[in-house]
Design a protein that fits this description.
single chain; alpha/beta; 7-stranded mixed beta sheet; 4-stranded antiparallel beta sheet; 19 helices; binds pyridoxal-5'-phosphate; Serine hydroxymethyltransferase; amino-acid biosynthesis; SHMT-like_dom
Length: 452
């Protein structure tokens, strides 16, 4: 930090403040974690300075021998960790990984057959008419994914997102009574819509998914099954999700982030069957900019950590702690989407406290509890104000919290929410954003949290 301070002291100061904030609060954002010192240090090296477009042994720049070593090791670890046929460790983030997956599905299933029809190998050799046919075919394809308010991600076909514009899209939700996925409904939609891509996976669904069933549905309608395991990759790596709950043996393509429950550097990855490997491999430069070699190195270090037995213990603790949090909320009379959890996240409907998600998020933050507001299914408050708060156990489990501490967290959250009331707008009307937290609560909760 002294080196940084000698150039731009404000950045050194912000970095110190960030460390203090992360240490001095309860980090319950389900998509965050604490990477190890080894992972963090690996990101601050000279690999940051190297350009390496292309893939191992096939680069568009000279002098990539050391990047090749790094990328090879990271991919080897990833294949071993997840039992995957092929791993592509270049994506800069989860969204980039999903874009690579979309591109590779289109390349494999639409571009390759179009080229074969024309008796060609390369798009550049297509006649103008065949090129137009190819472009039209790309634009005609369909994608079926989980809706945002049911817990899916923006890139799973949400209309305003690029995924909702690249593809004709439809969405599946969850059962309005139980909040659970109904595979018969997904199958019926798939039969009717006949998507090229069926996307499974979620950002805010507090339950496990049966990927064998999803694959059956995909096979029946001729779709490629793409699973986005960004949120629960750590539970897959740690063998908490096995058999039908492990997406890798069932999906054609699996995408993930590396920084959430997997506890690596910020980044993304694509795992694929051999069939899709050649098109995934062209992700850079067809979709992605030059790889972040320093981050690929840090991914290799994180995957090596995740292959240790201690990571299995960690992953099981993540699931057990989320359960403890959910039970703690239930015992205190809260309403949870689906009634509980069997993964790493809990979705609390705060409308029972008379609050919007935005008000609850802000009140909790004032008391040092860092969360994010989240839509609940059919949310009357929309995606900005929302009616839910999403909690995740990965980060505090890394800090060593166990079931008792998570129960205590449920108590602290309940104290804050039950002593918060909606505020008013400047004009005195009802506000969905402002809130009033009773005097002294924030200080008391902060003090109790510091003892955990
Ligand atoms: N996929 C899912 C399921 C996610 O929850 C997220 C992020 O929260 C992403 C993709 C995007 O990841 P990133 O922010 O690294 O692009």
């Amino acid at each position: 930090l002294e080196v940084i301070a000698s150039v731009e002291p404000r950045i050194a100061e912000a970095t110190r403040a960030e460390l203090a904030d992360q240490r001095g609060s309860l980090k319950l954002i389900a998509s965050e974690n604490y990477a190890s010192p080894a992972v963090l240090m690996t990101m601050g090296t000279w690999f940051s300075d190297k350009y390496a477009e292309g893939t191992v042994g096939h680069r568009f720049y000279a002098g990539c021998q050391n990047v090749d070593t790094v990328e090879t090791i990271a991919a080897e670890h990833a294949r071993e960790l997840f039992g995957a046929e092929y791993a592509y460790v270049q994506p800069h983030s989860g969204i980039d990984a999903n874009l690579v997956a979309f591109w590779s599905i289109l390349a494999h299933r639409i571009e390759q057959p179009t080229l074969a029809e024309a008796g060609l190998k390369n798009v550049n050799e297509l006649s103008e008419a065949d090129w137009e046919t190819l472009r039209r075919r790309f634009g005609e394809q369909r994608l079926l994914g989980m809706s945002l308010d049911a817990g899916g991600h923006l890139t799973h076909g949400f209309r305003p997102n690029i995924s909702g514009k690249m593809f004709h899209q439809q969405q599946y939700g969850t059962d309005p009574e139980t909040g659970l996925l109904d595979y018969d409904v997904v199958a019926a939609k798939a039969r009717e819509f006949k998507p090229l891509v069926l996307v499974a996976g979620y950002s805010a669904y507090p339950r496990r998914v049966d990927f064998a069933k999803m694959r059956e549905i995909a096979d029946e309608v001729g779709a490629t099954l793409m699973v986005d395991m960004a949120h629960f990759a750590g539970l897959v790596a740690g063998k908490v999700f096995t058999g039908d709950e492990d997406p890798v043996p069932h999906a054609h393509i699996v995408t993930t982030t590396t920084h959430k429950s997997l506890r690596g550097p910020r980044g993304g990855m694509v795992l694929a069957t051999e069939e899709y490997a050649p098109s995934v491999d062209r992700g850079c430069p067809m979709v992605l900019g030059g790889p972040l070699s320093h981050v690929m190195a840090a991914k290799a270090v994180a995957f090596a950590e995740a292959r240790q037995d201690s990571f299995r213990t960690y992953a099981q603790d993540v699931a057990d702690n989320a359960q403890s949090l959910a039970e703690g909320f239930n015992r205190r009379g809260a309403t949870l989407v689906t009634g509980g959890t069997d993964n790493h996240l809990v979705l609390l409907d705060v409308s029972g406290y008379g609050l919007t998600g935005r008000q609850a998020e802000a009140a909790l933050l004032e008391a040092g509890v860092v969360t994010n507001r989240n839509s609940v299914p059919a949310d009357p408050n929309g995606a900005w104000y929302t009616s839910g708060i999403r909690f995740g156990s990965p980060a505090l489990t890394t800090r060593g919290f166990g079931k008792d501490e998570f129960d205590a967290v449920a108590e602290l959250v309940t104290q804050v929410l039950s002593q918060t009331t909606p505020g008013t707008t400047k004009a005195g009307g009802a506000s969905k954003a402002s809130y009033v937290l009773a005097d002294g609560v924030a200080e008391k909760v902060r003090a109790e949290a510091a003892e955990l």
